Each structure stands twice: as C-alpha cells, then as structure tokens.
Amino acid sequence: MTSILKRKQIVSKTLRNAAKDQACVLCEWDMPGEVVLAHLKNKDAGTGQKCDDILGAHLCYTCHQAQEASRDVELSYLALRRTLVRLYDNGVLQIND
N or C: which end of the chain has fewer CB within 10 A? Predict the structure, then answer.
C-alpha cells in the first residue's frame, strides 16, 4: 500500500475545465472565463506545490485571493463542498457504489 504522502498527485483537465463558464461558489459571480479551479492550501506539500485537483473550488479572482489569505478553514470547506456537489450534479464527479 502506497503512503498517502508519497502517491502521485491527482491532476485532471476535466476537473480544471469544469470551472469554465461556472459561477463562483462563494459570491456567485458568473462572468464567463473569470472562474477557475482554485486549489485549497496544502500543508502536506512544500512551498509552491498545489494540492490535488479534487481539492479545488470554483472561485472568482476576488474570492480566490480571499481564500488564499484567510486562515478560515470553514470558508475553504464551504467552497469545496459546494464545488463537489456541483461536479456531482453536472455528472463530472461520479460515485460507484
């Protein structure tokens, strides 16, 4: 079994592209092309390393900057939860039972 800290990073064009033409999950800003997959902070990685793409939220520039500067874990959790629900509802994220 591979250690979670030593496994290959999850990088997905599908998840990154799913943010296009979506509204920001925090402020609902919906200007086309302005919302990106904003990676949450990663305390397991070194400086400048992003977390897995599955741990990203659909955020506009302003909310992305606020999330980066904030120590509010609840804000990041809210953004992630809303993004995962959106991905599931849009058929991008599937759960196999």
Answer: C
Q: Measure the CA–CA gap between 7 and 43, rounded to whole angstroms.
A: 15
Could you give the C-alpha distances from 34 to 26, 56, 58, 74, in angstroms and in order? 13, 15, 10, 23
For the cut 70, the answer to whether the pLDDT of residue 2 exceeds it is no
Structure tokens at 48: 């400048």
AA identity, residue 77: Y
> Which amino acid is residue 24, in one-letter code?
C
b/e string for 16-41 if b means 16 or more Cβ within 10 A?
A: eebbeebebbbeeeeeeebbbbbbbe
Mean pLDDT of 61-71: 89
Q: What is the pTM of this model?
A: 0.85
